[in-house]
Structure formats: C-alpha cells, structure tokens
Design goal:
Layout (H helix, E strand, L loop, with lengths): L13 E2 L4 E3 L4 E12 L5 E7 L2 E8 L6 E12 L4 E8 L10 E9 L1
Antiparallel strand pairs: 1-2, 2-7, 3-6, 3-8, 4-5, 4-7
C-alpha cells in the first residue's frame, strides 16, 4: 500500500515509500489497522503480512453502504529486521489508503 503521510514515526522504522515497518529489535509488538472503503460495492480483504505471510485479515463486504470499515489487531513476536506491512488481498480502495490507519509499537523488548 502507499500511505500519504505518517503522523508519528519515531526511529523511522516505518518506510513511507515502501509502506513497510522493519523491527529494530526482537520483541513483542502490537499492530492494528483500520481500512475504510468508500463508494465501493466490492468486498475488500486486507491482511497484515509478516515477512511475506498473512497473519491476520479483515473484511468489508456490505453491498448497500457507501462507507464501510474493516479493522483488526494483533500482538506479534518479531525478530530484529522482521518486516510487517498491509496488503489488499481482494477488491480495491477507491480513493486509496487516505481514509485508513496503520499503527504499531514495541510492547516488550526481548
């Protein structure tokens, strides 16, 4: 995905150009996302990917609404240099990712 802006990016471990977070150290990390589809009658599926593999997904599929959200969150054990990003697995987001959020932080270093 391509994010328009980053609100807080302490340490610059989230690369805005590639939309990938790279863990600076081993630990337990918390991630959450909230994706909004607007004026789109297609079902969307968004997955949080860790090192290229889907960990969790969220769906929005109501055909009769103009706006609908898909959200999810997870705690992950990550090694140093592990990568996390969001992937639109199904459907499309009219208007891009501008109505969406992605958040992650270190909960407990190991």
């Amino acid at each position: 995905c391509d994010w328009d802006q980053g609100s807080v990016n302490i340490g610059n471990h989230f690369d805005l150009a590639s939309s990938i977070f790279v863990a600076p150290r081993k630990g337990i990390y918390s991630f959450s996302f909230h994706v909004v589809k607007v004026y789109n009658r297609q079902t969307i599926q968004v997955s949080l990917m860790q090192n290229g593999y889907p960990v969790i997904s969220a769906f929005a599929g109501d055909q009769d609404v103009t706006r609908e959200a898909a959200s999810n969150g997870v705690l992950l054990l990550m090694e140093r240099e592990d990568k996390v990003h969001l992937k639109l697995e199904r459907g499309n987001l009219m208007g891009g990712w501008k109505y969406s959020t992605f958040s992650g932080f270190l909960v407990f270093p190991l």
